[in-house]
């Protein structure tokens, strides 16, 4: 098809975003689609040493530090967990990366979910490659309407124990904390939201997965919780920018 050379870059971008936001293949990360190879080399799977199943996700923010949620780590110690990285397929054989330290946010509340963050320090740094790398943290306030991409291996639908072997992508639009509270009054300080439409949402075992701002490709947040994987109520993420001081002081 011939494209009119006079078509502006703005129109082309708008058309692309329309296609991305209307993607509706039914996979895990409910209503998402299979992630392109190498698109999210910073996502990792966190698992227990004693079991082989995926517990939650995390994000490589440095070659030896993984950001995830405090709820994901629970009362476990570094000896109880390992990180698997370098593949977008959960069942692909990968060498487990041992953890030397778990640091939970000092103000984390298991009751309210406030400051639901934890940092995992790896025993040895990763070797960066086309399939394995880190992501830069967002340093600006969240703007309502910003196009984001969420990545995860979570449940295919609410109430199931079936998860996706292939990493999934879900395009959503961000909501600032102020705008999110008009839909979700229980939102706590330090959280943000994202939503697209009913039937498209993060789900079980997606916790800790990255929400990435599409314009800058920076990490905006990690998935904290949702409402029955419905997409009717916004998904809630821990805002990276509002926790940047703690992250910088800890992940050194």
TrEMBL record:
State the Gene Ontology BP annotations. innate immune response; proteolysis
Source organism superkingdom: Eukaryota
Stretches of the chain forming a coiled coil according to its record: none
Q: Does the keyword Ribosomal protein apply?
A: no
Q: Which InterPro entries match?
A: Peptidase_S1_PA, Peptidase_S1_PA_chymotrypsin, Peptidase_S1A, Ser/Thr_Proteases_Immune/Dev, Trypsin_dom
| Boundaries of every Peptidase S1 domain copy | 29-252
Q: Does the keyword Cell inner membrane apply?
A: no
**Where does the UniProt entry say this protein principally localizes?**
secreted
User: Where, subcellularly, is it found?
Assistant: Secreted
Keywords, ordered alphabetically = Disulfide bond, Glycoprotein, Immunity, Innate immunity, Secreted, Signal
- Signal peptide location: 1-28
> Could you tell me which PROSITE patterns the record lists for this protein?
TRYPSIN_DOM
**Any GO CC annotation of this UniProt entry:** extracellular region
User: MF terms per GO, please?
Assistant: serine-type endopeptidase activity
So what family is this one in?
A: Belongs to the peptidase S1 family. CLIP subfamily.
Name of the protein this chain belongs to: Putative chymotrypsin 1
Organism of this sequence: Anopheles aquasalis
């Amino acid at each position: 098809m011939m494209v009119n050379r006079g078509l502006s870059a703005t129109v082309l971008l708008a058309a692309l975003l329309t296609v991305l936001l209307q993607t509706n293949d039914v996979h895990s990360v409910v209503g998402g689609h299979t992630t392109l190879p190498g698109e999210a080399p910073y996502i990792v799977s966190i698992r227990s040493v004693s079991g082989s199943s995926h517990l939650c996700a995390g994000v490589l923010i440095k070659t030896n530090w993984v950001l995830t949620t405090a709820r994901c780590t629970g009362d476990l110690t570094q000896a109880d967990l390992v990180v698997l990285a370098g593949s977008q397929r959960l069942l692909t054989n990968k060498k487990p990366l041992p953890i030397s330290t778990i640091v939970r946010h000092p103000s984390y509340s298991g009751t309210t979910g406030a400051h639901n963050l934890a940092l995992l320090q790896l025993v040895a740094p990763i070797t960066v490659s086309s399939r394995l790398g880190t992501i830069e943290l967002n340093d600006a306030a969240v703007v309502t309407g910003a196009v984001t991409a969420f990545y995860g291996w979570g449940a295919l639908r609410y109430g199931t124990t079936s998860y996706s072997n292939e990493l999934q992508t879900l395009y959503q639009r961000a909501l600032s904390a102020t705008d999110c509270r008009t839909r979700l009054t229980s939102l706590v300080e330090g959280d943000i939201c994202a939503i697209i439409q009913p039937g498209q949402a993060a789900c079980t075992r997606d916790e800790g997965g990255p929400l990435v701002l599409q314009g800058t490709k920076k990490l905006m947040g990690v998935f904290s919780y949702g409402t029955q994987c419905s997409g009717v109520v916004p998904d809630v993420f821990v805002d990276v920018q509002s926790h940047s001081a703690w992250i910088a002081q800890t992940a050194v």
